[in-house]
Amino acid sequence: MKKIILYSIVSVFALASCQKNMTNLNIDTKHPSTAPSYALFSNAQKNLVDYITTPNVNSNIFTLIAQYWTEATYTDESNYNLGNRNIPQNFWNNLYVGALNNFQQAKLLIPNDVTDPAVVKNELEMTDIMEVYTYYYLVNTFGNIPYSQANNINKYPFPAYDDAKTVYYDMLNRLDTCINGLNPSAGSFGSADLLYGGNVNSWIKFANSLKLKMAMLIADSDPTTAQKKVNEAINGGVFQSNADNAVFKYTGITPNANPVWVNLVQSNRKDYVVTKTLLNPMVALNDPRRSAYYTNQYSGGDIGGTVGVTNTWNNYSNPYFSPITGTIIDPAAPSILLDYAEVSFLQAEAVERNFIAGNAETFYNNGVTASIEEWGGSATDAATYLAQPAVAYTTAPAGLGAGAIGSTGTSTTTTHWKQAIGLQQYIAYYMRGFDAWTSIRRLYYPAMAVPGSPKSPFPWRYTYPANEATANGPSYQAAKTAMGGDAVTIKLWWMQ
């Protein structure tokens, strides 16, 4: 009887052991089903920066729309062709899936991964700030978007589109909550935070600077709210120098190399040329950033490409073009999310709008100087540049870069400060095509050249992804109706 019991016990343990081992065999150790929250946060940060930095024509053509570059061979995107490669779909998917979904999953896991409630709070607030930053791109690219029901496929398989203005004001409220919730006395992500290394004070400055940027976007459509939020942001503490900049530092080693290098050098692509839209004003103003922005290979002078045209000057077989410089295509080149130069220009504008007290010229000079130093120049270079009557704030002439904005007609902007700030902000935004595009849509300056063979008028927004009409039909149709259509010519709610 004892032998029977002993055999039974051994059998049970053997069976349990066998079952345990069988379970282990079903685990894919190379593709874990869960991940630590900090890893998801880091991954989402990198994905987001990659998406907004890459010049890949399948997903991000803002550098072409803002006319910093033009294509030398295949000019569809330089001519505003969004549909040929389904660019809206790729940009939409990248931000919703690669960035927002990872941020959202990180937020779900943080309370389980971290024991200190104060650290949990900081990490949740930082993640929420990154979500707001990501949605800023989506809502100002498309207009009405899935927001309250986004990335919750189990509950909302066909997410509704929220009104863009409602989304925007909710984002501003979320930023307020995040700023008030951050605790500099507690820790956070540490090195897993690829922007600030977990420095909570830096995140407070970043959030306030983002709030300033978002507030100024609505300066024309809602000046009362804009002024209130601008003052709150400045009083809360915005960037004070380039040391505060939100910078993503690439290592230069694949897969952590700058996407510009990946797309231009690693892919051996040689068909981008700096445009006349950017180059001509820089040459006229003897801008010290020229050597950092592009390479001059023609002894007769710098030559910019004609937007959307394949001709002698744009052709890479010709030695007279001004191609992208080595500074830009360095695999370790950093990517800027938000910087002190931008914050300074926004404050100069806020003074001109009587939102804040101060001297617009001082803020303007700070912005120009910060940009020049950020691109490798010196304070002396900046002072020399600003001393020119054509650059100095009070005497900078109107008209540099003037022309038609696509095929929508000429710019009606006559306000001196919009032209002075608009041009210098445009030059400073180089390699940040989305921000330049948004500034152009907001200040109407500098005006864009009409491409050689435009496939559409100047795009004030992206059309919705093609598969939204089929995969999320009712919601898409409702959004289309609410927007007044789904065309690139439809202006977003904050545009005047």
Using brief descriptors, characterize the structure shown.
496 residues; two-stranded antiparallel ribbon; 18 helices; 49% helix; disordered N terminus
Description:
- The chain is mainly α.
- Helices cover 49% and strands 3% of the residues.
- It contains 18 helices and 6 strands.
- The strands form 3 sheets. A two-stranded antiparallel sheet has the order 1-5. The chain has a two-stranded antiparallel sheet with strand order 2-3. Strands 4-6 form a two-stranded antiparallel sheet.
- Helix 5 runs antiparallel to helix 6, helix 7 packs antiparallel against helix 8 and helix 12 runs antiparallel to helix 15.
User: Biggest sheet, strands in spatial order?
Assistant: 1-5
| Rg (C-alpha, Å) | 25 Å
The total strand number stands at 6
Total helices: the number is: 18
Mean pLDDT across all amino acids: 89
How much of the residues is beta strand, in percent?
under 5%
Overview in brief:
This protein is mainly alpha-helical. It has helices at residues 2-25, 37-53, 62-65, 87-113, 117-142, 164-181, 200-217, 223-236, 259-266, 276-284, 290-293, 340-352, 360-374, 379-386, 416-428, 433-443, 468-471, 473-483; strands at 69-71, 145-146, 161-162, 246-248, 272-274, 335-338. It has 18 helices and six strands.
